[in-house]
Amino acid sequence: MFVLVEMVDTVRISPWNFHRQLNEAIAEELNKKLANKVVYNVGLCICLYDITKLEDSYIFPGDGASHTKVHFRYVVFHPFLDEILVGKIKYCSQEGVHVTMGFFDDILIPPESLQQPAKFDEAEQVWLWEYETDEGAHDLYMDQGEEIRFRVTDEVFVDTSPTGPATAATDAPKKEAPYTLIGTICEPGLGLLSWWNS
């Protein structure tokens, strides 16, 4: 779920921070720049783990700040495919079940990955599983706030870099999440769903 990623960056330290230890100032700048941000094809950055190498610092003409090339390791949320995670249902829509882990909300379980037969209840805005037993069918609702286990089946990275001014002919671009996990609900026979016995 969490991995250490080796990165390299040039960190700018402003002159008013020269009185601080270089490692502390660099760590703060790296966390300001990367913490709680998605790096394309890497994952959601959480926090700095350690600094592995500091190269020489330079002061460029016209800029009183120091610029230091830094090699460091960062803690990143990037689950591997087929990993089983625990989350809570944030809400349901026609697109599927949207799941949150508290610190990460862009998780979608599409309708075809739900337990079948499943249907969307428009009135209640929830998905329900029509579970067949010897006594008949039971509707098991996937209510908001319910804890579920899901398997990561895919990940989608979207480049959200600026593309330039929009023309009048094109509509405003739709805001997309830079990193989305696609999942499937785990098999209830494994005892992995909290709402199985509800």
UniProtKB/TrEMBL annotation:
The entry's keywords: Antiviral defense, DNA-directed RNA polymerase, Immunity, Innate immunity, Nucleus, Transcription
Family of the protein in this entry: Belongs to the eukaryotic RPB7/RPC8 RNA polymerase subunit family.
Subcellular location: Nucleus
Cross-referenced PANTHER family: DNA-DIRECTED RNA POLYMERASE II, III, DNA-DIRECTED RNA POLYMERASE III SUBUNIT RPC8
The encoding gene: polr3h
Molecular functions per Gene Ontology: DNA binding; DNA-directed RNA polymerase activity
UniProt KW Metal-binding keyword: no
Record GO cellular component, one term: RNA polymerase III complex
Occurrences of domain RNA polymerase Rpb7-like N-terminal (ranges): 9-64
Cross-referenced InterPro entries: NA-bd_OB-fold, RNA_pol_III_Rbc25, RNA_pol_Rpb7-like_N_sf, RNAP_E/RPC8, Rpb7-like, Rpb7-like_N
NCBIfam families: rpoE (TIGR00448)
Description of how the protein assembles with itself and partners: Component of the RNA polymerase III complex consisting of 17 subunits: a ten-subunit horseshoe-shaped catalytic core composed of POLR3A/RPC1, POLR3B/RPC2, POLR1C/RPAC1, POLR1D/RPAC2, POLR3K/RPC10, POLR2E/RPABC1, POLR2F/RPABC2, POLR2H/RPABC3, POLR2K/RPABC4 and POLR2L/RPABC5; a mobile stalk composed of two subunits POLR3H/RPC8 and CRCP/RPC9, protruding from the core and functioning primarily in transcription initiation; and additional subunits homologous to general transcription factors of the RNA polymerase II machinery, POLR3C/RPC3-POLR3F/RPC6-POLR3G/RPC7 heterotrimer required for transcription initiation and POLR3D/RPC4-POLR3E/RPC5 heterodimer involved in both transcription initiation and termination.
UniProt-listed GO biological process terms: defense response to virus; innate immune response; transcription initiation at RNA polymerase III promoter
A Pfam entry, by short name: SHS2_Rpb7-N
CDD domains given in the database record: RNAP_III_Rpc25_N
Origin organism lineage: Eukaryota, Metazoa, Chordata, Craniata, Vertebrata
Functional summary from the UniProt entry: DNA-dependent RNA polymerase catalyzes the transcription of DNA into RNA using the four ribonucleoside triphosphates as substrates. Specific peripheric component of RNA polymerase III (Pol III) which synthesizes small non-coding RNAs including 5S rRNA, snRNAs, tRNAs and miRNAs from at least 500 distinct genomic loci. With CRCP/RPC9 forms a mobile stalk that protrudes from Pol III core and functions primarily in transcription initiation. Pol III plays a key role in sensing and limiting infection by intracellular bacteria and DNA viruses. DNA-dependent RNA polymerase which catalyzes the transcription of DNA into RNA using the four ribonucleoside triphosphates as substrates.
Domain RNA polymerase III subunit Rpc25 span(s) in chain numbering: 83-196
Parts forming coiled coils: none
Protein name: DNA-directed RNA polymerase subunit
